[in-house]
Design a protein that fits this description.
- The complex is a heterodimer.
- In chain A, strand 5 and strand 6 (556-567) form a beta hairpin.
- Chain A is 61% helix and 12% strand.
- Chain A has helices spanning 2-28, 32-61, 68-73, 80-85, 91-112, 121-142, 171-186, 188-199, 206-237, 247-272, 276-299, 314-334, 351-383, 391-411, 422-445, 451-482, 486-496, 498-519, 626-643, and strands at residues 150-151, 154-155, 524-531, 535-538, 541-552, 556-567, 570-575, 578-582, 587-591, 593-595, 600-610, 614-623.
- Helices cover 61% and strands 0% of the residues of chain B.
């Protein structure tokens, strides 16, 4: 069986190479059957990678410890769900998982476009197959999940495996990596179409229209992946936070930021025929940051509690990145004539400019995160001195940029395309501006003197009120015209332009997340060693150790403390933080007790126990943190709305071509 | 006797609670951020997430920093103790101003770039002749109209 798995990966690698060669040669030599065979090869690659993945998953399920991968990442007593998730729990398996997702995406792309885009599809197939070749190369020769345990060249087995890393034995981790990978790999599709259109000298809007949904879906998956990771860190790691600016967390944020800039910038090309070079550069940046993130996680360049073990595959990633970036730059420079802008910017105070500033801040934050991630490595190489770059440093850099982005989220939709008059500015900004100032002053009077928090809450209200007013004005007009009640009018309005109003909902989700992040300015915590029957306090809460429990199951042993919790003297029930000791991995892990409320979360971690005498507990109060998760749900809902086809078909007439007509106003504004 | 024992237990408990070390305080974090973890499994400071999950170096280091602070030692002298014990490799410096300057410069250059881009667009728009007013193009325009009328 192991030979079948290895053979399937090797064959898939060979067929992926054939897909590249057949597609390119077939296109250049005008051999349609060769092109067709190249496209069909994509299905064969999918079949083979699926077969190889199936064999690995089967080995994990039946605990076949002859496989080195299974012995290293699974054990007999692990629940079935975690045996399955061990597929992506280690280096080799996760690379195979990546290959499988890419092959699935490639097959879907080829199938859905089998009768369309004949000029660029061979190049799309070639590019996607090239990326596939790279990952299959790693799986075939450098990180094979089908290596067997052997003594003197005789395959052997061990009695039990080491088990999956206990940190990964958590329900969110069953979903988080697939979501993140679906996002990472998903950006390969718009990238392939963009480069294919450059090669075919068709860099118009076709690739953008074709891949719009792909881009949004990839972005959605990545958003979900990042937030699930955040929720996992909050719930499972026991260090009382959801974002640590860890290099691996940063690696997932980088392509998300670039992808977000792309999703905004692409609207300029659709509506105005502008920013064509920029959009090419952005989608390429997003894709290469996805690859870079994978490289960071696996190369050992930076240290992280999340990273895979150091391995020699890093240099192959560097080679792949260098080759890809050089090729992309060459293509863009060579095809500049095809990427000329069709219209010009007229004013700094316009929707177009707000998109530019939005792109600037998103890319600046992307750069700042990248800079912060690599700075310790660069600094040590230059000065030979290690530096400390803990979360407070990142926060000082990122908070102003984040607030700038939040402000633009509210300002952008209030600007008109082309130019905005002073009267229009006054009319649109008056109510949100007054509300934001009133809130900031009110909070200051109420005793909140943290200026970043005041600014953030003010901006949140500014953006929220501007979004609500957009819905209100639109729904009011439609309701009056068609005699609909307000709720029906809102649905009708959204359905008429799902992309625009879905986008507003996404912005609203971001606002809610900012409310939650701002709450972290008021976090409090205490660590206490408490004897049986003893108590300790944090803010309005008092925790008393009522009981200590111990237990064991086949996977782990555990200690827990039953705490009677009161708030302002009134009982709010019991909480039971736990500490587990995983037998196979020989590793301890806290299992926090959490009380979620909209105003604040009470979070208690069981740090250690001393033989039934006392426990060391860490208690945290996280104000407003629930709004981060609520905001995430709103963001997902808004993105799904944006994916629904609009009731009214949109056509974007270009507003102006240099030296030609003066006013061909966009049909839709 | 049981009463005395109970009283003693209550007193000891009260003392224990009163002396609970606040090893997660900002003061400990501030100094700990400059001490590199020596567990061998990571390249973090003692403020790394692992510190709260039983790291063999970080947890004792934090308790020790707390005790040294309680004894009135300054940040620099605490770091010197670690340097003497583990060598200079244990010290993590603050990032240089280059860390701040570079992203700030990127933003400033970006804003300047946007203003330049807008001004250049406005200038080129003023300089480009309006094609519709060029009479030499009329014959081509007529030709286009004739061709279009066929459809």
């Amino acid at each position: 069986m192991e030979n079948l798995g290895a053979l399937a990966v090797l064959l898939a690698f060979c067929i992926a190479i054939y897909a590249v060669v057949a597609s390119v040669v077939g296109k250049l030599k005008h051999r349609p059957y060769l092109v067709l065979s190249g496209a069909r090869s994509v299905y064969a690659v999918w079949f083979l990678v699926t077969a190889a993945s199936g064999i690995l998953v089967y080995a994990l399920m039946v605990s076949d410890f002859r496989f080195a991968y299974v012995a290293g990442h699974s054990n007999r007593d692990m629940p079935t769900l975690y045996k399955y998730t061990a597929w992506w729990g280690g280096q080799e398996g996760s690379l195979l998982f990546w290959s499988w997702i890419l092959s699935t995406y490639s097959a879907v792309v080829v199938f859905t476009n089998r009768h369309k885009l004949r000029e660029i599809m061979p190049y799309v197939v070639a590019i996607m197959a090239s990326v596939q070749c790279f990952f299959l190369l790693l799986n075939t020769f450098l990180a094979s999940p089908f290596q067997m345990l052997a003594v003197d060249k005789v395959v052997t087995s061990v009695a039990d495996g080491l088990g999956l890393n206990p940190q990964l034995q958590y329900y969110a981790m069953a979903i988080h990596p697939p979501m993140l990978y679906l996002g990472y790999v998903g950006f390969a599709v718009p990238f392939a179409f963009a480069i294919a259109s450059l090669i075919a000298r068709q860099p118009g809007d076709t690739w953008i229209h074709t891949t719009r949904r792909w881009s949004i879906v990839a972005w959605l998956f990545q958003s979900c992946g990042i937030m699930l990771g955040s929720a996992w860190a909050f719930d499972a790691l026991g260090w009382g936070g959801y974002w640590m600016w860890d290099p691996v967390e940063n690696a997932s944020l980088l392509p998300w930021l670039a992808g977000t800039a792309f999703l905004h910038s692409v609207m300029m090309q659709e509506k105005k025929g502008m920013m064509k070079v920029w959009n090419m550069a952005l989608i390429a940046t997003t894709f290469f940051l996805c690859i870079f993130g994978t490289f960071l996680t696996r190369s050992g360049v930076v240290s992280s509690v999340h990273a895979f073990a150091e391995s020699p595959i890093g240099k192959y990633f560097v080679g792949f990145l260098a080759l890809g970036i050089a090729g992309t730059i060459y293509l863009i420079l060579d095809r500049l004539d095809y990427l000329k802008s069709e219209s010009e910017l007229e004013s700094v105070v316009s929707r177009e400019s707000s998109f530019l500033f939005n792109n600037l801040l998103l890319l600046a934050s992307c750069f700042a995160v990248l800079w912060g991630t690599l700075f310790p490595v660069i600094s040590e190489a230059v000065t030979n001195e290690k530096i400390s770059l803990d979360p407070p440093w990142f926060n000082r850099l990122m908070i102003p940029i984040g607030l700038g982005l939040l402000f633009l989220t509210g300002v952008g939709p209030l600007f008109a395309w082309r130019r905005t008059s002073v009267e229009s500015l006054r009319r649109n900004f008056l109510i949100p501006g007054v509300l934001a100032c009133a809130l900031a002053i009110g909070l200051f009077v109420a005793g909140i003197h943290n200026y970043w928090a005041l600014t953030s809450f003010g901006f949140c209200l500014f953006v929220a009120s501007s979004i609500i007013s957009e819905f209100f004005k639109g729904a009011h007009a439609i309701g009056q015209k068609n005699h609909l009640n307000f709720a029906h009018a809102v649905v009708e309005l959204t359905h008429r332009n799902t992309r625009r109003y879905g986008g507003y909902l996404v912005h609203m989700g971001i606002v809610l997340m900012f409310v939650g992040w701002t709450g972290s300015a008021f976090n409090r915590n205490v660590t206490a060693e408490v004897p049986m029957g003893g108590s300790f306090e944090l803010g309005k809460y008092k925790m008393t150790v009522a009981k200590m429990n111990q237990g064991e199951n086949p996977n782990y042993k555990w200690d827990s403390a039953v705490l009677a919790v009161t708030k302002n003297g009134s009982s709010i029930g019991e909480m039971e933080p736990e500490r587990r000791y995983y037998k196979a991995a020989q590793q301890g892990l806290g299992h926090v007790a959490l009380r979620n409320r909209l105003d604040e979360d009470l979070y208690i971690n069981f740090a250690s126990a001393e033989a039934g005498k006392s426990v060391t507990l860490q208690a945290y109060i996280f104000p407003l943190v629930s709004w981060i998760w609520i905001g995430t749900l709103v963001l997902i809902f808004g993105t799904l709305i944006a994916l629904v086809p609009s009731k009214v078909a949109r056509q974007y007439a270009r507003t102006q071509v240099v030296g030609m007509a003066e006013t061909a106003v966009a049909i839709e504004n | 006797m049981p009463l005395k024992t109970s009283l003693l237990a209550v007193c000891l408990t009260a003392v224990a609670i009163g002396q609970t070390p606040q090893i997660e305080s900002n003061d400990v974090e501030r100094v700990g951020a400059h001490i590199a973890c020596q567990c061998g499994g990571c390249k973090e400071s003692v403020s790394c997430p692992m510190a709260k999950r039983g790291c063999g170096f970080c947890v004792p280091a934090k308790a020790r920093i707390y005790k040294m602070q309680a004894a009135g030692m300054s940040d620099a002298s605490i770091i010197d103790v670690y340097k003497k014990e583990f060598g200079d490799k244990v010290y993590l410096a603050d990032p240089s101003s280059f860390f701040w300057l570079t992203p700030t410069m990127v933003i400033v250059l970006g804003i300047m770039g946007i203003f330049y881009f807008v001004r250049r667009s406005q200038r080129s728009k003023q300089l480009v002749p309006v094609a519709a007013q060029d009479p030499s193009l009329d014959k081509y325009r007529d030709e286009i109209d004739r061709e279009m009328n066929k459809w």
